[in-house]
């Protein structure tokens, strides 16, 4: 809960003028607090009894109290310090304890001092004694400030004449002024200033003020008069006590890092906590990244700000589930975030973080999407952080895009990129920018490594040749000629694609993805499995070239391939099929995955691109890939999705539709071979990549050899960079 829920916080309070500072202000605010800081000239345990209701809830919130106060020095004490007869810290603490001994002679103080003792003993309250010595002599620390913080990082500060004593609250005429961090920039800066002042005192960084901590052992002379803790405190001590060193951000008990994950973290640390984890899909990139962050958190004495950036909202949800296993409650930042006040939380923590030190550490975790990360408001908040910031980028290849490169935080000293395929196809500059920012690849763990170590399922690979129709081939060749006229060849030999060329390339790719013959071949291949389940069909983001496959659609209308496939599987083969696309929301997707995994009411999922990054359906046993882009990132991720481990799953079967321009019956002119060679080479590259680590690699490579022979494709052709 946040302080903002308290609607009637006044700007000032005065005792004896219808204001009850305890009931009207302090107790309501303390109930929502996780921290109460007080620096005063005078402190008495009687104040604790008055604030008991607020203190109890503050402690139940996991909060702590810190108090700095002056001792009540006698004349002899002052002389001893000034003349150097005794250590000032020793005199100050003795004076404080003498006060306790004197007051405990009176039974009315026993309850309050007993409470003080147990709060100190069990770590709920820390008390420090402050003394001042200047060139002019010995002075009294007489400042009177208070600070309270809630779980969202918002703070309230107050100052005035009010000491932390029973008489100040109940008998004296006192006044305080109150400042709230969220109300205005002026108040926020003033709160930060007072918080910084308190920290300087507490951390013994003020040149004129010496502070010393009061330990529970110093109560030994009066321990026989201390009563047992009240029942409510005894219950808290028993159930919660003080947080152990292992609590907070820590590796979950169930997580046992594998050797390659430990090596990744060690290499990253050796490279100054910068680098890239190039790890195959399904090998635990997320957990390795979080374990690396946990290592840095310990190395930086728990003073660390973590910013995690992912491409999509559904990936945020998945990361949050894993992060919470590490004991972190992150700030979740995107348009549909379940945390309505996440922007205010982020604003508060990024302001306060700069004032924290290893003596009084603070950590936070902010997870967001690429789109939200690059907005001006979020960039402004994150760039105010001055040190100990870790940026983790999931599917980091996306951040090489020109519009996202500029968002990469220059103030993030520590950086970690996670990606199965960090290199951006056709974008050397984007790839180089990622390496400049994140550093070298410090861990490479391939699909082959993962399969060999039983982190992923082995697979059979079946390349299925599909041929363009005569009309499709004619249009493909026509577009190829237009593309050749639209590109620019620079003197260096590099090809530059004009906007017209890019548009024509997309149009040509859609012909390949939506080839008419694919549906008939798919029907033939999948029919033998019509009674099976756990089947995934990857479709292209395209229309089919023959809409007659869908009943009731005229030849002039365009039909999405995924719709045609879904209707063919459902109507012709009687299979239970559902689409998994961007049109389904997160709740619908979860229901689809759960139903599909059970295999009872759903046999087949048809999908486009939304399964490429971050959606896990490990139960898939058979995948039919109708269309793949020329980007290895896409087909590497798709293969990784199919190879996830699942109970009872011994292997996966991948059917890959290899689109070729000519069938065995077609006659081919030499110029036609030259014009379609780029298509053949691209399909062969994917085929041979998939085949290289398949269980049936020999069988798969036989298909490759037949295609090479048919189209006279040599190794030199596979290495050419200028094929269009």
TrEMBL record:
Residues passing through the membrane, by range: none
Domain of life: Bacteria
Tagged with keyword Nucleotide-binding: yes
Domain Helicase C-terminal: from-to ranges: 514-724
Keywords, alphabetical: ATP-binding, Helicase, Hydrolase, Nucleotide-binding
Pfam family of the protein (one): ResIII
Molecular function terms from GO: helicase activity
Chain ranges of the Helicase ATP-binding domain: 266-440
InterPro entries for the chain: ATP-dep_DNA_Helicase, Helicase/UvrB_N, Helicase_ATP-bd, Helicase_C-like, P-loop_NTPase
Protein name (record): DEAD/DEAH box helicase family protein
């Amino acid at each position: 809960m946040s302080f903002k829920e308290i609607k009637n916080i006044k700007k000032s309070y005065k005792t004896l003028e219808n204001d009850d500072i305890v009931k009207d202000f302090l107790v309501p605010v303390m109930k929502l607090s996780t921290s109460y800081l007080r620096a005063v000239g005078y402190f008495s345990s009687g104040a604790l009894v008055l604030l008991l209701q607020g203190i109890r809830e503050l402690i139940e919130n996991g909060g702590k109290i810190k108090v700095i106060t002056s001792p009540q020095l006698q004349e002899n004490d002052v002389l001893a310090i000034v003349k150097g007869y005794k250590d000032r810290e020793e005199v100050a603490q003795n004076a404080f304890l003498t006060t306790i001994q004197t007051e405990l002679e009176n039974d009315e103080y026993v309850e309050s001092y007993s409470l003080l003792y147990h709060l100190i003993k069990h770590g709920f309250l820390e008390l420090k004694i402050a003394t001042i010595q200047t060139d002019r002599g010995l002075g009294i620390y007489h400042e009177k400030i208070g600070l309270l913080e809630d779980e969202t990082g918002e703070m309230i500060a107050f100052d005035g004449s009010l000491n932390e004593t029973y008489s100040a609250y109940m008998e004296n005429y006192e006044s305080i002024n109150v400042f709230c961090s969220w109300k205005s920039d002026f108040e926020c800066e003033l709160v930060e200033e007072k918080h910084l002042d308190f920290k300087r005192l507490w951390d013994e960084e003020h040149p004129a003020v010496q502070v010393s901590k009061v330990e529970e052992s110093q109560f030994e002379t009066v321990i026989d008069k201390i009563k047992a803790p009240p029942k409510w405190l005894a219950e808290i001590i028993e159930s919660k006590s003080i947080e152990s060193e292992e609590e907070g951000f820590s590796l979950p008990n169930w997580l046992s890092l594998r050797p390659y994950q430990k090596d990744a973290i060690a290499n990253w640390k050796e490279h100054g906590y910068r680098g890239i984890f190039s790890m195959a899909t399904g090998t635990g990139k997320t957990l390795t990244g979080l374990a690396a962050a946990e290592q840095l958190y310990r190395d930086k004495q728990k003073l660390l700000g973590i910013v995690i950036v992912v491409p999509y909202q559904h990936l945020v949800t998945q990361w949050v589930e894993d992060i919470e296993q590490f004991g972190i409650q992150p700030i979740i930042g995107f348009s549909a975030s379940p945390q309505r006040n996440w922007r205010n939380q982020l604003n508060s923590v990024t302001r306060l973080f700069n004032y924290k030190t290893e003596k009084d550490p603070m950590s936070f975790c902010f997870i967001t999407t690429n789109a939200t990360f690059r907005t001006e408001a979020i960039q402004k908040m994150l760039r105010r952080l001055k040190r100990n910031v870790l940026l983790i980028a999931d599917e980091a290849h996306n951040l090489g895009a020109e519009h996202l490169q500029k968002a990469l935080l220059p103030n993030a000293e520590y950086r970690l990129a996670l990606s199965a395929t960090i290199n951006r196809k056709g974008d050397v500059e984007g790839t180089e920018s990622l390496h400049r920012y994140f550093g070298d690849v410090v861990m490479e763990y391939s699909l082959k490594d993962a399969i060999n170590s039983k982190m992923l399922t082995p697979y059979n690979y079946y390349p299925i040749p599909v041929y363009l129709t005569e009309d499709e081939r004619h249009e493909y060749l026509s577009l190829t000629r237009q593309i050749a006229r639209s590109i620019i060849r620079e003197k260096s030999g590099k090809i530059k694609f004009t906007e017209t060329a890019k548009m024509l390339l997309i149009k040509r790719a859609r012909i390949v993805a939506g080839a008419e013959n694919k549906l008939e071949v798919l029907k033939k291949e999948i029919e033998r499995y019509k009674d099976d389940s756990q089947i995934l069909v990857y479709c292209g983001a395209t229309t089919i070239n023959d809409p007659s496959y869908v009943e009731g659609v005229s030849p002039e209308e365009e039909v999405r391939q995924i719709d045609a496939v879904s209707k063919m599987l459902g109507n012709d083969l009687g299979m239970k099929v559902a689409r998994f696309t961007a049109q389904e929301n997160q709740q619908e997707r979860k229901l689809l995955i759960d139903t599909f995994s059970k295999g009872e009411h759903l046999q087949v999922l048809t999908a486009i691109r939304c399964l490429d990054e971050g959606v896990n359906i490990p139960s898939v046993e058979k995948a039919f890939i109708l269309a793949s882009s020329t980007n290895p990132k896409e087909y590497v991720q798709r293969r990784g999705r199919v190879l996830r481990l699942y109970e009872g799953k011994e292997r996966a079967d991948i059917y890959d539709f290899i689109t070729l321009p000519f069938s065995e019956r077609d006659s081919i002119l030499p110029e036609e071979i030259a014009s379609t060679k780029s298509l053949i080479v691209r399909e062969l590259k994917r085929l041979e990549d998939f085949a290289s680590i398949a269980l049936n690699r020999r069988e798969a490579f036989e298909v490759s050899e037949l295609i090479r022979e048919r189209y006279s494709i040599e190794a030199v052709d596979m290495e050419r960079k200028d094929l269009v």
